[in-house]
Design a protein that fits this description.
mainly beta, Neuraminidase, five-stranded mixed beta sheet, four-stranded antiparallel beta sheet
Length: about 300
């Protein structure tokens, strides 16, 4: 039985059971660094967006080393790999238009791919099942934007709804976006709600519906059993939401999950049951008044991740 203390209660968030899993801190950055998102390539290399530094770093699980991978011309937020091995990144100056999409090749060369003139805060991203489209959450204007990965500056509003907007200006609306079984799941952080929308046969979005309430969700990842792992950011935890609605908090401050922003499953042979989690160390909302180093955590969750490109 673990003697670790659960996270402090967070208003509007139901944490469920407390059952921490084994956690290792595999990388960290100085206080004030904002590790925002991550994506893992086919070889198992972990790429971390440092929003505060306009930079992407790379963690190598085999050697345990961190290296500088790419410098961006503006703050970088969401990350996702496309089918051709390119890394896609979202970003822009927070609270200002335009939003930017970059394509980054395996050598770290950055190419601006698209400019969204009215996007205020481009955030989480995931590949569409059609293999040629990237879906990106726009956190302030209530949209999931589709980016054509084959043609520069071709984009459209794939899904737009008032429920994806925040109720104020301080906390993001649509934040993380992931796909399971032809449904797109969208975390709307400010509303403490997860929504989902079916993907129609022609690739368009169906009608949006609530999936779970009273859950403070930033970005997230699915395992092969349909469990959803959620980084809760100011709730300082990682939560597992089962298909039947059961909630289990599997990491909290004692495990290093202060300011947990995003998670993704490992892809190296030794990492298939590992969930990697980025944290800010509380840079935006200090834990008990103290900002900690930003971290990359490795959680042993005992399940394999769902392939994002399937």
């Amino acid at each position: 039985m673990s003697h670790s203390a659960p996270p402090d209660a967070f208003a509007g968030h139901v944490a469920g059971l407390w059952a921490p899993v084994p956690v290792e801190i595999v990388a960290q950055w100085p206080e004030g660094h904002f590790a925002e998102n991550l994506a893992i390539d086919a070889s198992g290399q972990v790429f971390v967006s440092l929003h505060s530094e306009s930079r992407i770093d790379r963690y190598d699980p085999a050697s345990g080393t961190v290296s500088r991978f790419a410098d961006l011309p503006a703050p970088v937020a969401g990350l996702a790999f496309g089918g051709d091995g390119a890394l896609w990144a979202t970003g822009g100056v927070l609270g200002q238009v335009p939003g930017l999409i970059w394509r980054i090749d395996p050598n770290g060369r950055v190419e601006q791919w698209a400019e969204i003139p009215d996007a205020v805060f481009l955030n989480g991203a995931t590949p569409h099942p059609d293999g040629r489209t990237l879906l990106v959450a726009e956190s302030m204007t209530g949209r999931v934007i589709a980016i054509d990965q084959t043609q520069k500056n071709r984009w459209w509003a794939w899904l737009a709804h008032d429920l994806l907007r925040p109720t104020g200006q301080r906390v993001p609306g649509a934040n993380g976006v992931k796909i399971l079984d032809r449904f797109t799941y969208i975390s709307v952080t400010d509303r403490n709600t997860l929504f989902r929308a079916p993907i129609n046969d022609d690739g368009s979005a169906g009608e949006i519906a609530q999936h779970a309430a009273d859950i403070r969700a930033d970005d997230m990842a699915f395992d092969v059993n349909g469990n959803l792992y959620i980084a809760t950011h100011p709730a300082n935890s990682v939560l597992r939401l089962s298909p039947d609605g059961m909630r289990v908090t599997i990491a909290g401050p004692a495990e290093g999950a202060v300011g947990a922003t995003a998670c993704a499953f490992g892809r190296a042979p030794a990492d298939l049951n590992a969930l990697y989690v980025t944290t800010t160390g509380g840079a935006w909302a200090p834990y008990r008044g103290v900002v900690q180093p930003a971290k990359l955590l490795r959680l042993d969750v005992g399940a394999r991740g769902k392939d994002l490109l399937s």
